[in-house]
Amino acid sequence: MTLSLNDRALALADRLAADADGLQLDVTTLANGARLIDCGAGGFEAGRCFAEICMGGLGRIAYAPLVLDGRWLPALTVTTDRPAIACLAAQYAGWRIDRDGYFAMGSGPGRALIRAEELYDDLGWDEHASAAVLCLETREPPPAEVAGFVAERAGVAPSALTLLMAPTASVAGGVQIAARVVETALHKLHELDFDVRRVVSGYGSCPLPPVAGDDMAAIGRTNDAVLYGGQVHLTVQGDDDDLRELVERLPASASSDYGEPFGKVLEAAEFDFYKIDPLLFSPAQIRLTAVGSGRSFEAGRVDLEVLERSFRG
């Protein structure tokens, strides 16, 4: 039986929609039959479900307190035994939807049907499904015409498309971004030309950022949660010497843009993400364990001072 990310995500999305009242979700059907699940008013459980759907049902999210340098913070943990597929084939926000004046970054397993990114050739992943599930970080619901465009790209009928959305400045939105802590480590590995299929399991923890007053401020806080508070442990097939050298290049601190709250970095870049060093986007601390030798190699550190400056606003 062929594993389908979209089929797994659809089953989770159906359960989420069935409990819309309890989770404070708004479920609507667009004019062309596409289903929209708005998680913007939802809380921790909506965010947890959103994140697991975004990972194609191949990751688990749990809540746990995190103590950093004696400071207690609410946090989450992410675990996956299919890191490359869950995090990059599904969760990574790699598709820019820019259509008829509507813009949003698309993540989730629907991307694997659209294949707008060369990433899928590197992963060797061939997705098959009769339904598509795509996640959007936005507070503006897409019009039916945009949903129709997404469905056409995914090769499904509009009525077989499920779109989930949540703004950055919301509890659910903050959760689903913090849940990308392992994904950012996998993406950094891919940027460094490491074969991410050699990562056999992933575990990560990330503090939950306080909800910000607006989406721009929330972009700063959610990124800082990962860059300065995220911790990831990956079990990897690889040579000890190679992993020892590689791990030093992985944490956010290996970037020249590291050291200030992300909001300030973004402002200095004139709010153009493409002017920011792409190697900045990685967890604060990373540990690699070699499957063959059992040895571990670690680099980076949590920076509570920058994290607290960001979270205080």
What is this structure, in a nutshell?
The protein is α+β, with helices and mostly antiparallel strands and 313 residues long.
Kindly describe this structure.
The protein is an alpha+beta fold. The chain has a single domain (5-312), classed as 2-Layer Sandwich (Methenyltetrahydromethanopterin Cyclohydrolase, Chain A, domain 2). Helices cover 37% and strands 24% of the residues. It has 13 helices and twelve strands. It has helices spanning 5-18, 20-23, 44-54, 83-91, 110-114, 119-123, 144-154, 171-178, 181-191, 215-229, 240-247, 262-268, 304-312, and strands at residues 26-29, 35-38, 60-68, 71-80, 95-99, 102-107, 132-137, 161-166, 199-207, 231-236, 285-290, 296-300. A six-stranded mixed beta sheet has the order 1-2-8-7-6-5, with helices on both faces. A six-stranded mixed beta sheet has the order 3-4-9-10-11-12. Helix 10 (215-229) packs antiparallel against helix 13. The chain is globular, with a radius of gyration of 19 Å. The model has no long low-confidence stretch (mean pLDDT 96).
